[in-house]
Amino acid sequence: MEKHHKFSLWYVVLGIWAVIFVHNLLFSALAVKIIPYSEFLRLLNANKLAEVAVTENQIQGKTVEGAGPDGKAEIFSTVRVDPELSKMLADHNVTFKGEIESRWLHDILSWVLPVLVFVGVWAFMMRRMAGAQQGFMAFGKKARIYMQDELSVTFEDVAGVDESKTELVEVVEFLRDPGRFTRLGGKMPRGVLLVGPPGTGKTLLAKAVAGESKVPFFSLSGSEFVELFVGMGAARVRDLFTQAKEKAPCIIFIDELDALGKARGVGAFSGHDEREQTLNQLLVEMDGFDPTVGVILIAATNRPEILDPALLRPGRFDRQILVDRPDKTGREAILKVHLKGVVVEDGLDLERIAAMTPGMVGADLANLVNEAALLGVRRGKDAVGMAEFEEAVERVLAGLEKRNRLINPDEKKIVAYHELGHAIVALSLPGADPVQKISIIPRGIAALGYTLQVPTEDRFLMRRTELLSRIATLLGGRAAEEMVFGDVSTGAHNDLARATDIARSMVKQYGMSEKLGQVYLENERRQMFIGSGLEAPPEYGAGTAEVIDSEIKAILDERYQKAREILAGRRDVLEKAAVLLLEKEKIDGSELAALMEEAG
């Protein structure tokens, strides 16, 4: 991989010092010392003059060896010459003549040589700056180029995205043996677009393709194309494809393509800016390069909806591969990859850990394993066990535990009843996620307590009953506060927001409203002018909007009353569990379930 030296201010200091040093050295070697006429006469009388040149109003001479201040001084006096001077010089046996020596070489060197030194230092600094800043048009030096022996990532290092790997195996085979695909006239896709949420492993997949193919890998971000100077991005795109063709077969990987390939503006807010010029050049290059050469363009984005349609048409990014969140089996495989360098206890239940982490992507699971390992170190253990992984899950989901935060007893009591309200309603309704833990220890930024619910399996569809149960569970905390204390607190603001979002989605998106029926009323998040930030107006009238609001409120009111009914019927369990929770600060869901079974 090409290395560059960074430009330093010390280069400027060194250059200035060099110019000053050379200038002073030159002047000390060629300097002419101007002395008064009296000093000249003193040197003459002391027999310290070797030779003298005399004109009408100038005297120029040299002292004998060792007579001057530095041993070889040259004197220069500008006075009207004494008529008796020639006789005085003859009396002291000083050779004299009537013509002053020319000093043009001295004058030229005293100015030209420092300038040449300065130009040399400036050229040296510019070369070092070019190495640090990649030059104005040197795009190839901007991209990080990984050669075959520098890529150690293979498909074995990528887990949980088996379908995506299967799609990319064909790309690997094409790079290894292009003739196999071109034999029957087939052509490999010019571009492969990896689409998926952040952290799912899109960049890792692209590196694995290069590692499996044993070809050079050009890696860069979409934002690196666009610079301050107009036209630079387009020039860099041209240079990139030129270098890629020279190193073919190879892979070009553009991460965060949406930074470069955002849809071009239309209407009043459009503008032909530097980004659009760079995008246009990328489209031209993708049309122009021969797919049989062996250059594969892979890009990644988590916002495909904002990409320019010209990028996604056949002939450019003709293959789109979804890199989605892993399921339970995929999460278990990802955990095995990240646990290779971690000392764990024998019999660690990876299946249980995978079940506790629904919705997590590869980056989340890597962070989870690291948190568990750090917890094991803090506790002085020789191996990481299940307790550390359970605590790590709570850290990731709820935030860092803050036992030092002081909460007055009244607030602590409110938090306890609030969290138990969530848990009891969840354990009483069908379709609600199982309760794993209830805690009144503050976590994260603003959570004074939490109820941890972990689904038993991955879910891709939610029934209306399950959504209603989830709303009632969220409102159970507020219902418990009102029933026990006759008042409510501000602690339920997040619960209210989440419950309202679910109810709004039921009415506007899922067609689960009796009054509105099977109608989709949610505006797509499109903008009137792309890039303007102005949302399009709703496609329904004010009357429909009133019905939507009333239906959302009706769902929330009905679910709140349902939560109150459940808690009123389980009041004895609520009181016993509150005493236990205030004493222990943290109880398992199984303990609360046992109390509910005892009460019948």
Give the N-to-C terminal Cα separation. 70 Å
Q: What is the strand arrangement across the widest sheet? A: 6-8-9-10-7-11
Please state roughly what percent of the residues sit in beta strands, choosing from under 5%, 5-15%, 15-25%, 25-35%, 35-45% or over 45%.
5-15%
* Mean pLDDT reading: 79
Assembly type? single chain
Tally the helices: 22
Shape: elongated
Task: Please name the fourth-level CATH homologous superfamily of the largest domain.
Answer: Peptidase M41
Structural class: alpha/beta
Number of strands: 14
- Reported CATH architecture of the largest domain: Up-down Bundle
CATH level-3 fold name of the largest domain: Methane Monooxygenase Hydroxylase, Chain G, domain 1
Task: Report the helical percentage.
Answer: 40-55%
TL;DR of this structure?
The chain is an alpha/beta fold and 600 residues long. The chain has 22 helices and 14 strands. The chain folds into four domains: 33-102, Signal recognition particle alu RNA binding heterodimer, srp9/1 (2-Layer Sandwich); 140-322, 3-Layer(aba) Sandwich (Rossmann fold), CATH 3.40.50.300; 328-398, Helicase, Ruva Protein, domain 3 (Orthogonal Bundle); 409-599, Methane Monooxygenase Hydroxylase, Chain G, domain 1 (Up-down Bundle), CATH 1.20.58.760.
